């Protein structure tokens, strides 16, 4: 059963919260058009599965839920155990391969608390248009 894109988020500069957009162009070997984290590296896009909120410490959950978006894609409906390094995700017309789970250094405040621990980061292997509400699938 497919998952779903809940939100698409872009920021023109690093270190600021991302703005939600209804749709975006994902560029092969680059990332989201207009996003500061796009580029020629192995963390071109970030994906946060809402199911990972279950892993957030109880004293941090309100802070995480009320923080602004720091991930490019917020998704739901794909079990965490399927979102592993090496798997490819189809998001709308685009495809990404997961290269990392979490960051090397955890953040301690706001939404980055969760994304730095449970966010999926990857490279774009196929570009295309992506819209909020599009299906998310693991590539067979």
Automatic annotation (TrEMBL):
Positions of the MOSC domain: 19-139
Family matches, as InterPro entries: MoCF_Sase_C, MOSC_domain, Pyrv_Knase-like_insert_dom_sf
Gene Ontology MF annotations: catalytic activity; molybdenum ion binding; pyridoxal phosphate binding
One Pfam family linked to the record: MOSC
Name of the protein: MOSC domain-containing protein
Lineage: Bacteria, Bacillati, Bacillota, Clostridia, Eubacteriales
